[in-house]
Structure formats: structure tokens, C-alpha cells
Amino acid sequence: MFGDTVGSQSVDAFTPAADLRRDGDVWKVSLAVPGISPDKLEIDVVGRTLRVRGERVTDEKTAPVINEIAYGRFEREFTLPQEIDATRVGATYRHGMLELVLPLAEAAKPHRVTVTPASDSEQLHAA
Asked: What is the set of domains in the chain, with CATH numbers?
């Protein structure tokens, strides 16, 4: 399952919360990345590994009185239990949530094998 094979790593400032789920032949990953511009996100899929990197920057020139929002770079890496078709991965960003849809590679999908009965002349006879 996903949870047993997920690796997560914080580079500098924070680790965004993530949800992982399987929906038929696709894995869905949601990351909470509010305040991060989509052009500051990097998403790579290599084999079974999904890596998401990003950076939340501030343009404030003054020192904050209260500082509860983490700024800086982050990196999350997930090892998926099955091979993903990297050419069909989709990513959308809405209301601070990054949504990824990772379809299984054809080779990772289960395939049913049809059993063909042998002709009578090919049947093995017990002696």
C-alpha cells in the first residue's frame, strides 16, 4: 500500500500535508501548498517515484511580529507501489491545493489470462 512505501523529506522550511488515494487505475495525490505560486512547483515522475518540490517566498521587507507561516523550499517524495505512466500524469492547482492524477502504466494493470481447453488429442491420459 502507499503508506508503507511513502518517503517524505523536508528540505528547509516545511513539509506540506498530503493525501494519497487509489481510484481504480489511478493514484491521486493532493498537497496543501497555499501561498505557493504554481510556477514555483516542480513535479517529476521517474518509474515509481513521485517528487514534488516548491518554494514559498515572501516579499515582506519588515520583520514580522507573529511568524506562523513557513517560508522557504520543500520537497516531498513518494515511492508508489506500482509503475506510473508518466506521460499521462495530470496536475491542477486550485485554492492552494495541488491535485495530481497518476495513471498506472499498462504493464502495472492486472490482466486476465484466458484458459483455452486443449483438444481431445492433446489431453494427457493417466496410465
From this structure: 2-122 (2.60.40.790)
